[in-house]
Amino acid sequence: MTHQLTPLDKKTAEEWSKHKELKQRTPVLLAGHDHEIFIDAAGSSLIVKVGQDAEQLGVVDIWWDKAGKMHSAVNLIPSCEFPEDPTCSRFREKSDGFVATMMEAPLAVLPKPMSSKRVRFEASDMATFLLTLVKRGLVDQGVEMVLIQ
Questions:
Q1: Are 76 and 60 a contacting pair, CB within 8 Å?
Q2: Structure pTM?
Q3: Which of 19, 92, 137, 149 has its CA 20 to 30 A from that of 26?
């Protein structure tokens, strides 16, 4: 199970396929981080990313044939096909209420209009602004640079 960008998942799967034991023990790499659905083979594994916000559920089957060859298959099922669990719904509502309250609290005054929407793809004034605040908060520890992924 990973939480990294797809190119790193591919590299991980390719490296594992070179390992004597891991190549036979990792038919599927359950992966996250990217928000898009991605299912593809790399090395000796099948990388499975089912997208964001639990909109899809991934059902992964792994089996071996009579000759001992490993196989795998993935099916996606829209989560809306399942009824909501009352206990989970109450927890979600409580959590949503807390998040809504926290979202109303001002954190900082921005020096100009900024957005983080494309932060994963290009330089971002918002990311620079936030990391400058983090760095400033760590100056007593001698921090000279801040990188966060």
A1: no
A2: 0.64
A3: 149
